[in-house]
Amino acid sequence: DLDECAGSPCKDHQYCLNTDGSFSCKACDASCVGCTGEGSEKCKTCAPGYVKEEEKCTDIDECNLPEKVCTKENQDCVNTSGSYKCVCSEGFEDKDGTCVQT
């Protein structure tokens, strides 16, 4: 079997999987910018919103940072994969960018 992966035939956000007589390109984990294989432990570098912890790229919980990211009144932070979003607290709704009581 010829290792087609030796020539790096895949795109930057993919890794090469050598198979018998061929190869396939697989997508890197969402936490990676470039990778050498499957999973968050094979990242070349971590994507924005992720940090390398114990050899893996792990999501940064922006909602638990010392500096508050959702600063408007009656607003809660919701952590998402690689990011976060600010939502109005329970009992409040967004009216033109302000959280007002419902």
Automatic annotation (TrEMBL):
<comment type="similarity">
    <text>Belongs to the CRELD family.</text>
</comment>
<keyword id="KW-1015">Disulfide bond</keyword>
<protein>
    <submittedName>
        <fullName>CRE2A protein</fullName>
    </submittedName>
</protein>
<dbReference type="InterPro" id="IPR000742">
    <property type="entry name" value="EGF"/>
</dbReference>
<dbReference type="GO" id="GO:0005509">
    <property type="term" value="F:calcium ion binding"/>
</dbReference>
<keyword id="KW-0325">Glycoprotein</keyword>
<dbReference type="Pfam" id="PF07645">
    <property type="entry name" value="EGF_CA"/>
</dbReference>
<keyword id="KW-0245">EGF-like domain</keyword>
<dbReference type="InterPro" id="IPR018097">
    <property type="entry name" value="EGF_Ca-bd_CS"/>
</dbReference>
<dbReference type="InterPro" id="IPR006212">
    <property type="entry name" value="Furin_repeat"/>
</dbReference>
<dbReference type="InterPro" id="IPR001881">
    <property type="entry name" value="EGF-like_Ca-bd_dom"/>
</dbReference>
<keyword id="KW-0677">Repeat</keyword>
<keyword id="KW-0106">Calcium</keyword>
<keyword id="KW-0732">Signal</keyword>
<dbReference type="InterPro" id="IPR000152">
    <property type="entry name" value="EGF-type_Asp/Asn_hydroxyl_site"/>
</dbReference>
<feature type="domain" description="EGF-like">
    <location>
        <begin position="59"/>
        <end position="98"/>
    </location>
</feature>
<dbReference type="InterPro" id="IPR049883">
    <property type="entry name" value="NOTCH1_EGF-like"/>
</dbReference>
